[in-house]
Write a structure and sequence with these properties.
The protein is α/β, with parallel strands linked by helices. It has helices spanning 2-21, 42-50, 79-88, 103-109, 123-137, 144-149, 153-162, 174-178, 195-200, 202-214, 223-232, 250-253, 256-272; strands at residues 31-36, 65-67, 94-98, 114-120, 191-194. Helix 3 links the parallel strand 2 (65-67) and strand 3 (94-98).
């Protein structure tokens, strides 16, 4: 409790200092909300949004991170917890979340209080990244021991595609895992970001991120300087889970069997997200 209170006091002090650094900028700036599907560039989006703190009185660190599942137990959080978390955010905060698009949550996130961004990635690359994360990087993950017990990468990749319906905690197939996020795609208030665009079309994608904020507020800083700040804020070495930052890596790991399993489980999802036009891949 003491540690949490101290952390909060430091954070609020830093926000006051930020306000003093930029006295000419608006004080009542909306909170920036980075929403992400897991293993889709969460930390990359966090870094970019924090880049606004170099040119405006935004917080210099994340206010907090919210996930719909507890990482070490896999327990699903009550929907009210997401609403309570959103209500803790204040003007000039920057926050990050794996946040389901429930109607009440969408209504909150799409209000004037927030500028929401949603980042997602080719689900085939997601499942590959998920294997490395659960098996090698996050030893406290609820599925870590199980993944370690499997004979090889191919077996683990199959589980990341199909889920573990027999497990004691919720872990469905990749399409069902993405389904609660689909609602963000239909909201005009939410800027949709393909992870791949931040790798291959970075300048235009950063410009879209900037323009979304400037459509809501006026910042007393040249657009070119803000854009440069967002670019400079990207540092993969500071991401605890960043592995390669490459796209299309699934092609190195998918066997014909994996392709067949994925098409059956999530072929329609690839088409909906714009990664394929049909099942001939």
């Amino acid at each position: 409790m003491v540690k949490s209170s101290l952390r909060s006091a430091v954070y609020q002090t830093e926000k006051i200092i930020q306000r003093l650094r930029f006295p000419a900028q608006p004080a009542n700036l909306p909170a920036l909300l980075g929403i992400s599907f897991p293993k889709s560039g969460t930390h990359l989006l966090d870094q970019i949004l924090l880049g606004f703190s170099n040119v405006a009185p935004y917080a210099k660190r994340l206010h907090s991170f919210y996930a719909e599942y507890e990482g070490d137990t896999g327990k699903k959080r009550d929907p009210q917890q997401a609403l309570h978390w959103l209500d803790t955010l204040r003007p000039r905060d920057i926050a990050s979340a794996h946040l389901f698009a429930r109607p009440e949550t969408v209504a909150r996130a799409c209000s004037e209080k927030f500028v929401p961004y949603f980042i997602f990635r080719d689900p085939r690359d997601v499942v590959v990244s998920h294997v490395f994360y659960v098996a090698d990087m996050e030893t406290r993950h609820v599925h870590h021991a199980y993944y370690q017990s499997l004979p090889d990468f191919n077996a683990r990749l199959k589980v990341s595609i199909l889920g573990r319906p027999e497990a004691g905690v919720e872990f469905p197939n990749i399409a069902e895992r993405f389904a609660p996020y689909l609602g963000w795609l239909d909201k005009k208030e939410v800027l949709k970001i393909h992870f791949e665009d931040l790798i291959h079309r970075r300048e235009s994608t950063l410009l879209s991120i900037l323009n979304r904020l400037l459509s809501r507020v006026t910042l007393q800083t040249p657009r070119e300087r803000i854009l440069a700040s967002l670019e400079a804020s990207i540092n993969p070495e500071k991401s605890p889970t960043f592995r390669s930052g490459k796209t299309g890596e699934w092609k190195k790991y998918f066997t014909d069997a994996h392709k067949a399993l994925f098409k059956e489980a999530a072929g329609d999802l690839l088409i909906k997200l714009g990664y394929e036009k049909d099942s001939n891949w």
